[in-house]
Predict the 3D structure of the following.
Amino acid sequence: MKQFEQTYDWDTGYLYLTSEALSFVGEQVRFALRPAQILSLCLGPGVPRWGASHRVYISWEDTGMARKGAFNLRPVGVRSLGELERAVVRLHEWLQAWLHDLAQAATSPEPLLRLESPALGEVTGTPLNESRIFRTFFTSSSTVALVAVGASLVFDLPFARQAWPLGWYVVGLSTLTLLLHSLPSWYFRWRGQPCSNRI
């Protein structure tokens, strides 16, 4: 998984499952994969966070065009992380059902029939295990601490030892919150394609 300018989604769009192909129509790319071109389909690791986090991973190969690759999917338009996780599982089940019973799917409209397999090359992004997590944390913690100090001064919270140092409490709590938020990223380990020859 890679990070693209502070987001984990390189493109967003619409996914169509028909009897001929899996088609994606997005803002940056449009493509179609025939069922025979899909090598593996599975649930794999999602973005690093507290709690369950998965995405649907698809690896594919188009021997006729000498292309191959892998990508991951997640639903959009959900209201919470818990709802997102449930929606990812449903998406995986939907894709599996489609692959195993193509006859139940509708036929592709003419515009989708003209789509081919992706021809993207290497998509530029930063793999999560190569991102500068510690540098980002120290930069963010410094910013959070300065904002906390400023807020404490605005609300006249004391920093002196003679009184209860509420100002330092605000600074410490803000930094601790950022630390807890960053821990999943620190322990994230990407070990390559999460599934192999699994449909």
Summary: Helices lie at 81-100, 110-113, 133-154, 166-187.
